[in-house]
Every structure is written in structure tokens, then in C-alpha cells.
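FIELD: query
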Amino acid sequence: AAALAKLGARVVLACRDMEHGERVVKEIRADVRTTGQTASLDLRHIDLADLSSVREFARGVKERYDHIDLLILNAGVMACPRMETKDGFEMQFGVNHLGHFLLTNLLIDRLGFNSKSG
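FIELD: result
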């Protein structure tokens, strides 16, 4: 996120833990400020273990942005104890696969290769 912000990109940070997200935003802003630029960051809540949260996140992004140039899906869980998502799926499968799959499908019409502007 910091590297993209340093290049002048508007970066949407999708975070489950908003307190942690706020700390990261402050760190990125400080880092980018050392280059003489101002970071364009948009912190938004998402919980990939809750498909209604994924839908709400996508709805908010689509309301705000006409197109998305790049979608980086790097959140995930690994080797967690047997747990289920809010929707009843095994946690690792639900977060690492279903959450990302749904998010991509909900935003695909805004991705650069599909958008009217890209």
C-alpha cells in the first residue's frame, strides 16, 4: 500500500480491524510525507469471514469509485483451529477463497479492463 501511495495512487485499504487500519494509515502517510507527497488513502471495513460485510464493502466502493485499476487480494488466514465463518463455511476456505471470490465478482465491472474509462 505504501509503495502504491508513493507512486501517487489512490489506495483503498480494506481492513477487518479498523484500529489497526488507522495505525497503518498513519504510518503510510508519514512514510509518503518523507517523499514530499501526500498519500491518498481510503480506509474501509471488511470482514472476509462475513459475506454480508464483503457485499457492504463492495457496495461502498462502487458508490465512491467509477473504476479500479488494481485489486490486490492478500488477506487470509492459515492453520487456524476448526472454526466457521458467519455464513457457516470452514474459516480458512471461507476467508481465503469465498470472500475473495465474492469481492472480485462484485467489483469486476469496475476493474480497468472492464470499465468504460479503461
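FIELD: remark
The longest helix spans residues 91-107.
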